[in-house]
Design brief:
Blueprint lengths: L1 H4 L11 H4 L9 H5 L1 H23 L9 H29 L7 H25 L6 H28 L5 H21 L25 H6 L4 H9 L16 H28 L5 H5 L11 H8 L1 H18 L1 H14 L5 H48 L4 H6 L2 H18 L5 H20 L3 H11 L5 H22 L7 H42 L9 E2 L7 E11 L8 E9 L3 E5 L6 H9 L3 E9 L3 E4 L10 H6 L6 H10 L3 H6 L17 H15 L3 E5 L7 H12 L9 E5 L11 E6 L2 E6 L1 H7 L2 H9 L5 H13 L2 H7 L12 H16 L16 H14 L15 H11 L1 H30 L10 H46 L3 H6 L2 H43 L4 H45 L1 H6 L3 H50 L6 H42 L24 E8 L9 E8 L4 E6 L5 H8 L7 E6 L2 E2 L5 H5 L2 E4 L8 E2 H5 L7 H10 L3 H5 L8 E2 L8 H15 L3 E5 L7 H14 L4 E5 L11 E6 L2 E6 L1 H7 L2 H8 L4
Parallel strand pairs: 1-5, 4-8, 4-9, 6-7, 7-8, 13-20, 13-21, 16-19, 19-20
Antiparallel strand pairs: 2-3, 2-5, 9-10, 11-12, 11-14, 14-15, 17-18, 21-22
Helix pairs in contact: 4-6, 4-7, 5-6, 5-8, 7-8, 10-40, 11-13, 11-16, 14-16, 15-16, 15-22, 15-43, 16-18, 16-42, 18-22, 18-40, 19-22, 20-21, 21-22, 21-37, 22-36, 22-43, 25-27, 29-30, 33-34, 35-37, 35-43, 36-37, 36-39, 36-43, 37-39, 37-43, 39-40, 39-43, 40-42, 40-43, 42-43, 47-49, 51-52
Length: 1455
């Protein structure tokens, strides 16, 4: 390099130590300034160019118009190029005139000039690619300015020394150059306007990150506006930014799907080839030449999808890891500087400045790394959720039976979250070994082979994964390393440099060693999740080609040729040898006994079953009404429209023909009333009619109707058949396949298919089947002797003459109603729902006890609900600071003495740590005598003793916290479970299951596994920060001057951050539940979604819900980075001032004290950051306690057992039921639902209960079970007032068979006899009486037959029979039948009614009647009207009296 400058007028060496280092006024040589210093920015720009051009090539965000700012930047670039070339030409001018300039005066202007031209071109290229702010150019201009500062000073000093300007031209051009690069740097900090077609031009609230400048992105300044907004008022969903396009579900999920499909094709390819190969030869078999079956790797799909993000994060992490080792080296130099009184003072200031700059760079790069990796983790979770959702829409029914809805939701919630949690740790796989190797290398330089002793202990301690091991590992290693170092050789002197640089290096080691066990644990868990997700994604999908939808025989709408179908490949065929041809526009009935395959046939037509043989053709669009109506949690109108545009005329027609108009008058919000999950606020009949209205509105070509008439009254069924399904209905001319048990409609059908044992036993027209005189004809003669065609015709005319409109308005609903059918109950549910969310109102952190709510307030709530029709309101977020009472609740759960003990133990261990380090400082300062230190054994012994004391205190505090945390979690979970098991039914009707499950899963998980470690880390960082400040202030009292401003800034940042992040966490928690609720809803309705071809719409709906959740996750991630940069800046200032004041007071400070002070300062950055993070995390996570406590204090039912008033043994003996002047209302302030009911049912009587909708039938049975409590009067069973005994004592002696049969996932034996009270003979006898004996005995597992979730692998009729068998086993004295045989064919129904009459002969039976023929032989019939007894007598007497019952019987054709 000297040769570039030695000749000519410059005549300077490249480097001169006396000029640059060993002097009080340092400077660089002119050669250095004009060569390397000038080239540094140029080298940077040319090195960055290839990568940057590649980035710009893929960065297409439109172009930016040529603005004044852009013109000015370009002009500056051109001027700088001109200045550089002016220098070059001046050198040539000198050469021509014989002055012979040094070569550097030719090379440098040429290099700088070309680089300036490149920078100018880049400015314009960036504009065309839509780059608003260029980080590459900002760094370039910054380097230009920094590198020009030294010549700037040198030239001024030279002029002052010489008294003249030696080279006026170059002097002028340099200062012109400096002014121009300074202007270019300032201008580059301003960002351009958004490019055309950017999201900012169309999005009302775009994420500011996309348009933020480079410095704003570097410091996360773009988040500040939201932080201020969150500080001013609690954030709401509308305050959150839209997601960036690259973070949206539809983009991210599509990328992962393509990668996964690529994996599937890649693994399927070789296998497909293998099948085509010839039989392998003997040598191939012997040598193992056969191809192995490979499975597609979901892991590789993930890696391929997110490669670019992972590579960028690796680059950031690598730079940060290398920078981490710079400060210990600078500390080493600083201690040497303090130890050397003759060293120039500027060395110390330079070292302090370099430590600050290094720490600052480390902070900025670390948080860019974290932002990159956490956003990648967020995208990872989004992609996995989307892929699982899409898979769930297409899996076969066999897969659905293997996996419960809960297990599939787990894949989406727990397993996807695990991938998100492990992502930030992934780079530790290479980073941790790198940091360990570098640390050991630098320690070897300091201490030699002694470091190997520490490494050996380190390796031995790795398997120990506990808070104690993590805390003590660094100290133990330090102790052993230093101990071995001083012990092996008496000449080894432990000075301040060795001691505190070693401590700093061991502190760096602490992070990878602490994280390694956690990484291994997380990877193990994620590996399990990966296998589960991969297994699920590799499951069989429904074959979209199994139903031919394009070609069919002319004139036909549906054909099946030799069709054999099964629900799963490992199960025997459910349907076999099916041959069916259905003409276009025909009405076809499918009939047969329970379990014969009627619903399976419909499923086969939909492509829901696995086809083993034959062909299925269905031409045209399909509408499907399942046997159990699938209702969405949205408005009634949205349920009917089902994604189609509103056509008012068609919509009105659908409501009218499906007899829904009168329902709309009763529902509080009309057709805008929100329907709860699974249609909880509709009766069975209403749900079925909404499902039918959806089909009618769809205006499809083919209608598959799976027994839609069983859930409605006979006259409503007649109306629906006439107006919708029948030959004169709205669907006349469409192809209709009707599964039914109602024989009255069969004469009006075009064709009847009779199924038996999975085969078609008979087919033909009604009259043809009667003439055929087969099993169907015999069945008709037995069960409908009068219903020949003449009678049917007469009945049809009679019904047409009746005032059908009045009838439907009076009783458009099912005569059976669930509690939710009555308007009063509907309103009480709104009220209960609103109460459950009252604690979410602003400023509330605890629920308001429902028993003390002001009646006027609740009335207002009900009125409001009536107006809006909203049932399940959006879950509201708590706002403001978490109340101290919540922390108090948790502290009480932990135990107050335990809490105090933890605080004292932590204070003690921090004091012990300071003591150990102060002792180390004193040891390092001890003068060496003859090159040796005395008292080494004493020094080492005391240091070890203080360390062991610290270890014991850490162990005790961690153990105490663990015990306290487990106790708190147990107590809070017990309180929640206790309350929820005792919550009234109305609570569950108005609270989505997803919300309750969220408390039991996510919130309890937070209390179980997150809160205690968060509190431990908070204590740790708090005491570390306090310790650091104490040590630095004691070492350098001058530090007190800066403590106050730094503390004020720290507190200021903390208040902004905590207010915002806490609310973001709450919003995230609330927006998570709808994802899982929607997924559960989708899984249960996949057959309907597929039938209506709405898969794409539901994907969009799921993506939208995920995106709403991510809208609060993304700013939460950014808030942590925003905080980190600002808090670590405070920490970096602490490092700067600790070093600075050490330099200023070097004459009074010992090297040991400086080492102690600065090594503590280097640790404080992380401690300060973690302290705020943990404070915020604690506030965010303590919300889980708040939410659990909220649901632990909701109103509960009466006590289960009242010890002082237990009923006598064997009660009730007679089953005598008496209502005395009994009245009930759903809550204070509402009308009475039952009014002064007085009746006496004798033991053994059979009483039917009938009445119009809202008459109080269901309320009466609810009162019997005390689901509703009396307003006045009493109910007596065998003379005992039921209000005086415990609910468990009462309900265990009553039995109900519900209309909607309830089965649990488990064996059939468990469902029949959950407590194991009955013998096997008793169970088989019950199955025989309930006509399930044949079915169960045909199952290989017998009583151990596995019922899937909700009994999905049984038909609805079979489920009702299981419930009957359960009742037969219990044989209570009082039995309530809630239309228990609606889904059973007439033949089985007749047999069941016989069973009830014989087996419950001595029991009191109360039946809410749906089919009036089932109660015509009952002892008495109770007719309710508007909550009062209208009629109560024997059926014959009531018919003779020609009252209400007579009218109902006449409608049903029984009178």
């Amino acid at each position: 390099m000297d040769s570039l400058c030695s000749s000519g007028e410059l005549a300077s060496k490249f480097w001169d130590s006396n000029l640059s280092v060993y002097t009080d006024t340092p400077d660089l040589t002119p050669c250095f300034q004009n060569s390397l210093l000038a080239w540094v920015p140029c080298i940077y720009l040319w090195a960055a160019l290839p990568c940057y051009l590649l980035y710009l090539q893929h960065h297409r965000c439109g172009y930016i118009i040529l603005s004044h700012l852009s013109r000015l930047k370009t002009a500056l670039g051109v001027l700088l190029w001109c200045v550089s070339w002016a220098d070059l030409f001046y050198s040539f001018h000198g050469l021509i005139h014989g002055s012979a300039p040094a070569p550097v005066f030719f090379i440098t202007p040429l290099v700088v000039g070309i680089t300036m031209l490149l920078a100018t071109l880049l400015i314009q290229y960036e504009r065309l690619r839509g780059v608003q702010s260029s980080g590459v150019l900002i760094v370039f201009w910054f380097l230009c300015v920094v590198c020009a500062i030294i010549p700037f000073r040198s030239k001024i000093l030279s002029v002052m020394a010489e008294g003249r300007i030696s080279d006026p031209f170059r002097f002028t051009t340099f200062y012109l150059y400096f002014a121009l690069v300074l202007c270019a740097l300032i201008l580059s900090c301003f960002r351009e306007k958004p490019p055309f077609f950017s999201p900012e031009n169309v999005d009302p609230n775009p994420c500011p990150e996309t348009s933020a400048g480079f410095l704003s992105r570097l410091s996360f300044w773009w988040f500040t506006k939201l932080a201020i907004l969150g500080y001013r008022h609690p954030l709401e969903e509308q305050d959150l930014w839209s997601l960036n396009e690259e973070d949206r579900s539809h983009k991210v999920v599509q990328r992962l799907l393509e990668a996964w499909q690529g994996q599937q094709k890649h693994t399927a390819g070789p296998q497909a080839g293998a099948f085509e190969q010839k039989t392998p030869g003997e040598d191939e078999v012997l040598l193992g030449g056969q191809p192995k079956s490979r499975k597609p790797s979901f892991l590789w799909a993930l890696v391929r999808t997110f490669t670019s993000s992972l590579v960028i994060s690796i680059c950031f992490k690598l730079i940060q890891d290398l920078l981490a080792f710079v400060n210990p080296q600078l500390l080493s130099m600083l201690i040497r500087f303090i130890s050397n009184p003759t060293a120039p003072t500027w060395w110390g200031f330079l070292l302090a400045g370099m430590m600050f700059i290094c720490s600052l760079m480390q902070t900025l790069i670390l948080h860019q790394y974290f932002h990159c990796i956490f956003v990648t983790a967020l995208r990872l979770r989004t992609a996995i959720i989307g892929v699982i959702y899409r898979k769930a829409l297409v899996i076969t029914n066999a897969v659905k039976r293997e996996s419960t809805v809960g297990e599939m939701v787990n894949l989406m919630s727990v397993d996807a979250q695990r991938f998100m949690d492990v992502s930030p740790f992934l780079n530790l796989l290479w980073s941790a070994p790198l940091q360990v190797i570098l640390a050991i290398y630098f320690l070897w330089q300091l201490l030699g082979p002694s470091v190997l002793a520490g490494v050996a202990v380190l390796v031995l301690l790795i398997p120990l994964n506990s808070a104690v091991a993590m805390k003590m590992r660094t100290f133990q290693v330090t102790l052993i390393t230093l101990g071995v170092y001083v012990a092996v050789d008496q000449n080894n002197v432990l000075d301040a440099e060795k001691a505190f640089v070693s401590v700093s290096l061991f502190d760096i080691l602490k992070f990878p060693l602490n994280m390694l066990p956690q990484l291994i644990s997380n990877l193990t868990q994620t590996s399990v999740s990966l296998k589960r997700i991969q297994h699920f994604l590799s499951q069989d999908e429904l074959d979209p080609q199994c139903v031919e939808r394009k070609t069919i025989s002319p004139g036909y709408a549906i054909t099946i040729h030799s069709g054999t179908f099964t629900w799963a490949q490992d199960l025997p065929p459910t349907l076999h040898s099916i041959d069916i041809q259905i003409l276009k526009g025909a009405l076809v009935a499918v009939v047969g006994p329970v379990g014969c395959g009627k619903s399976s046939l419909v499923s086969a037509l939909l492509g829901e079953m696995e086809k083993l043989e034959g062909t299925v053709s269905v031409k045209g669009s399909v509408a499907y009404v399942p046997q159990q109506a699938w209702i969405q949690n949205c408005t009634l109108q949205e349920n009917v429209l089902f994604g189609q545009a509103l056509n008012p005329k068609r919509y009105q027609q659908a409501l009218e023909t499906c007899a829904l108009l009168a329902d709309l008058d009763m529902l509080p919000g009309g057709d805008q009333t929100e329907i709860g999950e699974k249609g909880i606020n509709l009766s069975g009949g209403q749900r079925q009619r909404v499902s039918l209205a959806r089909a009618v509105y769809s205006d499809a070509d083919i209608f598959l109707l799976d027994d839609p008439l069983s859930a409605v009254d006979s006259h409503v069924a007649k109306h629906i058949f006439d107006k919708v399904i029948g030959p004169d209905g709205i669907l006349a001319g469409k192809t209709r396949v009707l599964v039914t048990h109602g024989i009255s409609f069969l004469p009006q059908t075009d064709f009847i298919i009779v199924l038996a044992d999975g085969q078609v036993s008979e087919m033909g027209h009604y009259s043809a089947l009667l003439q055929h005189d087969g099993s169907f004809a015999n069945f008709l003669r037995n069960y409908a002797p009068d219903e020949d065609e003449e009678y049917l015709e007469d009945r049809k005319i009679a019904l047409e003459d009746a005032d059908e409109e009045v009838l439907l308005i009076e009783d458009t609903l099912s005569t059976h109603t669930e509690p939710t059918d009555e308007p009063a109950m509907y309103e009480v549910r709104k009220f209960m729902r609103q109460l459950s969310s009252m604690s979410s109102e602003e400023g509330q952190s605890r629920p308001v006890p429902k028993r003390h709510v002001n009646p006027s307030e609740t009335d207002a709530q009900v009125i409001k609900t009536k107006e809006t029709g909203t049932l399940i309101e959006e879950e509201k977020a708590q706002t403001g600071t978490v109340k101290l009472s919540v922390f108090g609740d948790y502290a009480k759960s932990v135990g107050l003495y335990t809490t105090v003990a933890i605080c004292l133990l932590y204070a003690g261990q921090s004091a012990a740590a300071i003591g150990a380090n102060v002792w180390l400082s004193a040891w390092a300062n001890e003068a060496a005598v003859n090159g040796r230190q005395n008292n080494t054994t004493l020094r080492l012994g005391v240091y070890a003793a203080l360390g062991i004391l610290q270890g014991l205190l850490v162990m005790l505090s961690a153990f105490t916290m663990a015990v306290g945390g487990v106790q708190a979690a147990r107590l809070l979970h017990s309180a929640l479970l206790h309350n929820k098991i005792r919550s009234p039914q109305s609570f569950f009707d108005t609270t989505p299951l997803g919300r309750i499950l969220n408390r039991f899963s996510k919130d309890i998980h937070t209390i179980d596994e997150v809160l205690a470690p968060t509190i431990l880390m908070l204590f740790n960082s708090f005491f570390n920060s306090i310790s650091t400040l104490v040590v630095i202030v004691v070492s350098t009292p001058l530090f007190l001057v800066v403590v106050l401003p730094l503390a004020v800034f720290y507190g200021f940042v903390q208040r902004f951050y905590v207010a915002t992040s806490r609310q973001l966490k709450r919003l995230e928690s609330i927006s998570r539940s709808p994802i899982y609720s929607h997924f559960s809803e989708t899984v249960s309705g996949t057959s309907v979604i597929r039938a209506y071809d709405r898969i794409q719409d539901f994907k969009v709906l799921s993506d939208t819900k995920v995106d709403i959740n991510q809208k609060s996750c993304y700013p939460y991630i950014a808030s942590n980075r925003w905080l980190g940069v600002r808090v670590e800046f405070v920490g970096n200032c602490v490092v700067l001032f600790a070093a600075l004041f050490a330099v200023i007071g070097r004459s009074t400070l010992s090297p040991g004290l400086v080492g102690l002070s600065v090594s503590y300062a280097l640790q404080v950055t992380l401690a300060l950051n973690w302290m705020i993070r943990m404070m915020s995390d604690l506030e965010s996570n303590i919300v889980a306690v708040e939410r659990v406590k909220e649901y632990s204090k909701t109103v509960t039912e009466a006590p289960w057992v009242v010890e002082s008033k237990c009923p006598p043994e064997g009660w009730p003996m007679r089953g005598e039921v008496e209502f005395r002047n009994y009245s009930v209302r759903y809550r204070p302030g509402l009308e009475l639902v039952l009014k002064n009911l007085t009746l006496h049912v004798h033991g053994g009587e059979k009483v039917g209960i009938v009445g119009r909708t809202g008459a109080g039938k269901s309320s009466m049975t609810l009162c019997l079970f005390r689901i509703l409590e009396a307003a006045e009067g009493e109910i007596l069973i065998d003379g005992l007032n039921v209000a005086n005994i415990g609910l468990h004592d009462l309900r265990s002696q009553l039995t109900i068979i519900p209309q909607d049969p309830i089965l649990f996932s488990g064996t059939l034996r468990m469902n029949l006899d959950p407590f194991g009270r009955y013998s096997e003979e008793d169970i088989w006898r019950a199955l025989e009486l309930s006509h399930l004996h044949t079915f169960v005995s045909n199952q290989a597992a017998g009583l151990d037959f596995q019922c899937s979730e909700g009994g999905e692998n049984l038909s609805v009729g079979q489920r009702q029979l299981v419930c009957l068998a359960r009742a037969l086993l219990r044989k209570s004295r009082v039995l309530v039948l809630d239309e228990a045989t609606a889904a059973i064919d007439l033949e089985t129904d007749d047999l069941i009614q016989g069973t009830i009459r014989t087996q419950f002969e001595a029991c009191t039976v109360l039946t809410i009647a749906h089919r009036l023929n089932t109660i015509m032989d009952y002892t008495r019939v109770l007719v309710l009207d508007k909550g009062a007894i209208a009629e109560f007598d024997s059926p014959n007497n009531l018919i003779a009296a020609k009252g209400i019952f007579y009218g109902m019987a006449k409608d049903a054709g029984l009178a």
